[in-house]
Amino acid sequence: MSQPxxxxxxxxxxxxxxxxxxxxxxxxKSQGQLVRQRFFGNRGAVVSLAVLLFIVVLSVSSLGIGxxxxxxxxxxxxxGTVLDGGRPTLSLLPPGLGEHPFxxxxxxxxxxxxxxxxxxxxxxxxxxxxxxxGLVGTVVGGLSGYFRGWTEAVLMRLTDVIIIIPxxxxxxxxxxxxITWVRAHGLPTFATVVALGLLVGLAxxxxxARLVRGEFLTxxxxxxxxxxxxxxxxxxxxxxKHILPNTVGVITVNITLLMSSAILxxxxxxxxxxxxxxPDWSLGRLISENQTAFATRPWLxxxxxxxxxxxxLTINFIGDxxxxxxxxxxxKFNPKRAREVGSGADEHGRGAVHAxxxxxxxxxxxxxxxxxxxxxxxAGTAPVDGRSGQ
Length: 390
Known about the structure:
Blueprint lengths: L22 H4 L4 H10 L2 H21 E2 L2 E2 L21 E2 L2 E2 L14 H37 L1 H15 L3 H18 L4 H14 L3 H14 L3 H8 L4 H37 L11 H8 L8 H28 L8 H47 L9
Antiparallel strand pairs: 1-2, 3-4
Helix pairs in contact: 2-12, 3-4, 3-12, 4-5, 4-7, 4-8, 4-10, 4-11, 4-12, 5-8, 6-7, 8-10, 9-10, 10-11, 10-12, 11-12
């Protein structure tokens, strides 16, 4: 009598929520598509990206940029009559901006226009710092981590010298040099902002360089790098084609953190009077100029602070979303999904048990019938057999 044959139900990732990414989510998709899918699946990151884009569009479109005019009627340096004590005219019900939605200072200047100019300059500094610090930190960390030897010794000692200097002091010194040089040459305000971002970025790259060096030290010992060396690939090809693409997640996430720190650093410099100077406005200078009015006219202090906090928080949330997107091991546990998958696994398990029982019953019936058939066959063929007649 043959043994019952159980029906094996294949263990899939759908039945095991702890196994990670679902196969239907990754099958047939490139790395870029998977990163975009994970990023846009993060609600916090998507909302933060939308808020940041709204702030950028609002600041650029309201005052314009360069020769392109904006839709707001007041300029940051235009004085006027103080209306209703300079109180904000922004209204939610019914919605409306009014004459001065964020209020006025004691000279009648429109705070909305000043805040939008400060937001523009702070965003420019943030972007320039991110680009410069990201480029320098990646180059220094990558070269020192891959080539080792005297290259690593020189670059890492330079990194150690810069990293021990307080970032505020170094950025203040470089920022003052940049502003003095730009104004001595009669360049426009935008050049001052860009120069400030460049020199602050040159003071902000050491932490990223150390992280990139650690990634390169790990990846240069991997099997795929050894295989590329044996195949005759040059050092440049190994770095740009094999190692650097595997560090893009770490680089991207830390650049966003540097950008978030940059806007806070620029705010601190402007607050101390070492950043963007009059007649131009930054968010930090707005807070510094209006700190004495905090008790009597707090809206002069609140609105610049709201934009600073909003920009810093959105950049941090976007960085968290990018970290989760580039590293699937950071995927968050979903209790609801786990319960659904667990119930589905139980149903599959019960189905396997029923299928095994049915198979066992069917196999038993066939073996019983086969035994009778074999007996009948023996009885029927016995007279035909020649030996039976003997």
